[in-house]
Amino acid sequence: MVRVCGLQEVWDDGERNLVGWLADELGYHWAFAPSPAPETWQRRNGEWGTAFGNAVLSRWPISEQAVTDLSGDDGRTLLFARIDSPGGRLPFFTTHLTSTVGGSPARCAQVRQVCEVIAVNSPAGGYPAVLTGDLNAEPDSDELRLLGGHKTAPPVPGLVLIDAWRYADAGDPGFPWQRRNPYVAATLEPDARVDYVHVGLPAGGGVGHVESVRLVGDEPVDDVWASDHSAVLVELADRRD
């Protein structure tokens, strides 16, 4: 099984990188893309001089990686990592779109950039592209419709990225941002689905088909919540003809 995590708001204080520390503990591989404009996160946490960004944590080697700066002035990026798994190479992407209230036009522009990068780095055959991230938008938003490519014209012709939560129990809203988490309750914001795993269309033999999806990290451990966001866990098929 290919085990890969896409992470956002990962910090690096110059002495220790959070994803690097996790990789050392697990014996995994990692990649990190610091924001070119980390001031928002530094101001929020009072951690001046600390880098914040997106990261990939992988059980299997990362043979290629690249960072794309997204449009806007708040330092958002897209991190690409090609994972060399035993079942083949997996094009894996993670991002964190702008959180500006009323910022749908800005996120739409960022999604168009994301799709262009995915198209260039996702050859036909083998594993389809996987996009993970905190997209700061609800499922029926314009930016999410662009990713799906079936409710509006996709930014790149032929590129369709399926929201993996569509394979979940229809009665489960899948809120990774939920008020029963005290970190969320303190914001006075409503429950929301803003964290996603999107997967390209399956390859031959069903490779990359979504077999299961669920939330994890959505309960405290010893009364401690790991994050204000729960994680979306997706299992993809690796069978071939």
Describe this structure in words.
The strands form three sheets. A six-stranded mixed beta sheet has the order 4-5-6-7-9-8, covered by helices on one side. The chain has a three-stranded antiparallel beta sheet with strand order 1-3-2, covered by helices on one side. It has a two-stranded antiparallel sheet with strand order 10-11. The protein has a single domain, classed as 4-Layer Sandwich (Deoxyribonuclease I, Chain A), CATH 3.60.10. It has five helices and eleven strands, in the order βαβαββββαβαβαβββ. Helix 3 runs parallel beside helix 4. With 241 residues, the chain is α+β, with helices and mostly antiparallel strands. The mean pLDDT is 93. The radius of gyration is 17 Å and the shape is globular. 37% of the residues are buried. The two termini are 18 Å apart. This is Endonuclease/exonuclease/phosphatase family protein. Keywords: Endonuclease, Hydrolase, Nuclease. InterPro entries: Endo/exonu/phosph_ase_sf, Endo/exonuclease/phosphatase, GPI-anchor_lipid_remodeler. One of its GO terms (molecular function) is endonuclease activity.
Query: In sequence order, what are the helices and strands, one letter per element?
Result: EHEHEEEEHEHEHEEE
**Percent of sequence in beta strands:** 25-35%
Give the overall shape, derived from the CA principal axes.
globular
Spatial separation of the terminal alpha carbons: 18 Å
CATH superfamily: Endonuclease/exonuclease/phosphatase
- How many extended strands? 11
Using the CA coordinates, give the radius of gyration.
Answer: 17 Å
Number of domains: 1
Biggest sheet, open or closed, and with what strands and sense? Answer: 6 strands, mixed
Q: How much helix, percentage-wise, in residues? A: 10-25%
Overall mean pLDDT stands at 93
Strand order of the largest sheet: 4-5-6-7-9-8
